[in-house]
Amino acid sequence: MAVLLQIGRDSAAFETFYREHIERVQRFIARRVDDPYLAADLTAEVFVAAINSAHSYRPARGTPTGWLYGVAQNVVSAERRRQTRELRANQRFSGRRLLTPDDVSRMEDRIDAEAQARQLLRAMDDLPAGERAVLELVALDGISPHEAAQVLGIRASTARVRLHRARARLRDAAPPLAISSLADFSSKDIS
């Protein structure tokens, strides 16, 4: 916790925090994005945003990992809004930072590994926003419903109810492959 509060001022603290969380953040992004260049950019943006907002972290509101998932969710949401504006204006930005072939290969492997999670996300498109947010955090990102509640700023009981409703709706509507992704988290995860 103390490391998180120092990442904006201490490069050693940032390096420790980065090494501890980079894999989780990359998986979080790869579940939501299928372009390796964009995934790499968003991962970097998450850590830049974490540096800039580390002073706002409050230990009483949740774990550093939960807080970082909230930062990542905000970065991904901001990117979706930006893409929507871009599509409406029919403009394309071509200035993406250059990646080495090894970087692209690793990101493509990560994206391929998360293909089933992206299928589940597409199946979740029809869920109400609150239910979808809780389900994403619990089923795809592997955090507890209690931590998901902290990330989303809601009560734990509300998160559990939303999770239960989301799972029930998906059982009725989602493709079989997506439903098999839900088998990885069982009813015991709701408590």
Task: Give structural notes.
With 191 residues, the protein is an all-alpha fold. It folds into two domains: 1-113, RNA polymerase sigma factor, region 2, helix turn helix motif (Rna Polymerase Sigma Factor, Chain: A), CATH 1.10.1740; 129-191, Arc Repressor Mutant, subunit A (Orthogonal Bundle), CATH 1.10.10. Helix content is 71%, strand content 0%. It has helices spanning 2-6, 11-30, 36-53, 64-89, 101-113, 115-123, 129-140, 145-152, 156-173, 176-182. Helix 2 packs across helix 3 (36-53). The chain is globular. It starts with a helix and ends in a 9-residue tail after the last helix. Mean pLDDT is 83; it is low at 183-191.
List the helices and strands and how they pair.
Blueprint: H1 2-6, H2 11-30, H3 36-53, H4 64-89, H5 101-113, H6 115-123, H7 129-140, H8 145-152, H9 156-173, H10 176-182
Helix pairs in contact: 2-3, 2-4, 3-4, 3-5, 4-8, 6-10, 7-8, 7-9, 8-9
What's this entry about, in short?
The chain has helices at 2-6, 11-30, 36-53, 64-89, 101-113, 115-123, 129-140, 145-152, 156-173, 176-182.
The portion of residues assigned to helices is over 70%
Oligomer: single chain
**Distance, first to last CA:** 25 Å
Largest sheet report: none
Q: What radius of gyration results from the CA coordinates?
A: 17 Å
Q: CATH superfamily membership of the largest domain, which one?
A: RNA polymerase sigma factor, region 2, helix turn helix motif
**CATH architecture field of the largest domain:** Orthogonal Bundle
Beta percentage is: under 5%
Protein name: Sigma-70 family RNA polymerase sigma factor
Family: Belongs to the sigma-70 factor family. ECF subfamily.
Organism: Kribbella sancticallisti
Pfam family, one: Sigma70_r4_2
